[in-house]
Amino acid sequence: MTKQSPWRWLLALILLIITLLMSIRLGSAAISYGQLWQLLTGTAADPTFDAIVWQIRLPRIAMAFFAGAGLAICGALLQNMSRNPLADPYLFGLTAGAGLGASLAMIVFPEQQLPLALSAFAGASLAVFLVVLVCIRHGWQQLQVMLLAGVAVSFMLSAISSFILYFAEPFAANRVIFWLMGSLSRSDWQGVAIVAPAVLALLLLGLAFRRQLDAMLLHDESARTLGVSVDRIRLLFLLCTSAVTAFIVAQCGGIAFVGLMIPHLVRQWFGVTMLPLLLGSALVGGIFLIWVDNFARSLLMQQEIPLGVITSMLGSVFFLLLLRRQQPG
Q1: C-alpha to C-alpha distance for 92 and 87, rounded to whole angstroms
Q2: Which of 49, 124, 126, 289 has its CA 20 to 30 A from that of 104?
């Protein structure tokens, strides 16, 4: 049976439905399946449960799904463009750049969403600009330089963020530091309305260019012989992934390694070409981050674990295993 067998997609969709139902019920206020059915059908008599589900839990679940899907899609695109299995938004410096911009916005505009997203996008664009400068100097053919430049830019921008927070007002600095480690506690429908269209637009753009992106997996020269404008497509998707990463970081903070892990799992389960890879990354990435958030808010009593702590622990182990597989012999 092939990797693109329909039953695998059906199983993933069933898992998504189970995840949504269980996540809605999970929390300090227990909700029975009967109450959940009443809420979903609009027949609930208790307005408290209605507010808990529609104003607190569902926005958080939706944000987790779209954030996980977006980071996984960005990781799949970056790994394809660089032909490097270790590429992801975190290692390319996009998360650090978006975090720098968002940190500045949270200190200057603490209660406004739009400046936060725009500042995060500006920071991510700065990271892309620095990476592109290095790549142009050394040539796009040396794709390993792209990843190394991203790691260097990530450390540099993270250091600038730390420097700014060191001199910031203590309460604001503590709030920013917790947020930078990743959290969905600020999720609302307004934030979902910012992230969801960006993620869906990137998914559709990737599907529209799927043949060109598949051709780029071979070699730049091979892709050019097929009529693919390699440099333009690579720059286009670098900018688009930076925008989506920026919007996600602006709403959820820094969530590392989702874009590294999920595409590798999807390739094993659904296939390596862009159509199943992008759709599978969106589906599995969303399910994965929903469950990470479920564990983050339920493992400790009366306390929430930052998402970035959990994903970094899982991702670091996955990264080392991946490095071990890449070694010859």
Answers
A1: 7
A2: 289
User: For the whole model, what pTM was predicted?
Assistant: 0.88
d(CA 197, CA 121): 15
Angle, CA 241 vertex, CA 226 and CA 64 arms, to 5°:
130
Write the DSSP symbol of residue 3.
T
Greatest mean pLDDT among 34-48, 76-90, 258-272: 258-272
Domains of the chain, residue spans? 61-326
Residue 83 to residue 272: CA distance in whole angstroms: 12
Instruction: Give the sign of the dihedral formed by CA 72, CA 73, CA 76, CA 77.
Output: negative
The answer to whether 210 and 281 are in contact (CB under 8 A) is no
DSSP-H helix ranges across 83-141: 94-108, 113-138
CA distance 290 to 134: 36
What's the CA gap between 13 and 116, in Å, rounded? 33
Mean pLDDT on 60-74: 96
Helix (H, G, I), strand (E, B) or coil at 299: coil
Q: Class for domain 61-326, per CATH?
A: mainly alpha
Q: Which of 49, 52, 59, 61 lies closest to 16 in space, CA to CA?
A: 61
CA distances from residue 252 to 55, 70, 135, 154, 217 in whole angstroms, order as listed = 17, 12, 29, 18, 31
Q: How far is CA 39 from the centre of its chain?
A: 30
CB 77 within 8 A of CB 241: yes
